[in-house]
Amino acid sequence: MYPADQRDNWYAGQGRWSDVPASDWNDWHWQLRNRITTLAQLETLLELSPQERAGCLFAAHKLALAITPHFFNLIDPLDPNCPVRRQVIPHIDESVVAPGESADPVGEEGTMPVPGIVHRYPDRVLFLVTDRCASYCRYCTRSRLVSNAQSYDFHPELEQGLQYIAAHPEVRDVLISGGDPLLLSDAKIDALLGRLRAIPHVEFIRMGSRIPVFLPQRITPELAAIFRKHGPIWMSIHTNHPKEITRELAEACERLSLAGVPLGNQSVLLNGINDTPEIMKSLVHRLLMMRVRPYYLYACDLIEGSTHFRAPIQKGIDIIRALRGHTTGYGVPQLTIDGPGGGGKIPINPEYVQAIHDGIVELRNFEDRAYVYPSGKQMPDPTPELRE
Length: 388
Ligand SMILES: *Cc1c(COP(=O)(O)O)cnc(C)c1O
Fold this sequence. Notes:
By secondary structure, this protein is of the alpha/beta class. It has helices at about 20-25, 30-35, 40-45, 50-60, 70, 85-90, 160-165, 185-195, 210-215, 220-230, 245-260, 275-290, 315-325, and strands at about 115-120, 125-130, 175, 205-210, 235-240, 265-270, 290-300, 335-340, 345, 355, 360-365, 370-375. β6, α12 (about 275-290) and β7 (about 290-300) form a beta-alpha-beta unit. Pyridoxal-5'-phosphate binds near residues 118, 120, 121, 126 and 175.
């Protein structure tokens, strides 16, 4: 169904831009300058459906259109349902707002003490450092504040954010995101990481970025050296489908890994894009081959205009059940729903525990065979010294 997962079969190269000098193609600034951002450009490259054309006109005032040449090459122009195409090419269904959908589906605005800081969990903050991305995912949970297409006036304030973190000793973990933080210059990233490292209570620093996927050229040796200097810096990338695993992405991940950056992956469960066990198994196998540990598989947030992207949660549970035990444990992500309105991440799991009673646990394994585990009843009482 999908080409074998071996690295030799992963996409590589300049595709439609094969006449561009390699020095330009490999320059991340060239990739950004040559992004596809208008309907007119798109129409020279692809035959759009009327729904996509209308979607592009709608996108101009909701969530901008932008696709890097690197990522555009992964689109199959002959397949209107191409899983890469649907992630980045606007569709008029984005204009349909269903009941329950909102501009701030996970209730971030209510937990922003200063612009750019989301402090929802006790010991960690989300630090939004830019409102721009290399390309825009059509199901973006933060479409209200990225791409500058809506009237929302978001100016991340690095100084205020840093001061907030410095003033809150309970913050031991900082997740830098945006927008995409790797769009900042090397000098800014270096300075930001240096400032965070100088705060004694900040133990753990990580970044959430789709740049390795959209713009692997950005992961230069110089950038990797900055991560090494301030390390350990962890990073979560974002892939949804095996087609996104290119040799360029693998090389970018290698530069990061060898600079000491532990890598994770976040996927969003998307209707008709990656909502089958076969596709997700192929994706997680390719991720493991690049030293990337699948971290979360999110249910798609209830962002306005996302109905066409949302898959039944049961499909997510079926995927996890098809992975757990059937393939490498490291390859199984945590299925998660971010509680609408501000509940935070809630893990969703297939049920392996049938019952707990009379000191036993009744279990089913990955093959659906029944097992019983004596749970504590016949354990000796701990000695008085060890009680407490
Ligand atoms: C996802 C998220 C985090 C990080 O959560 P982990 O489970 O530690 O990865 C922190 N803050 C906010 C607001 C988040 O949405």
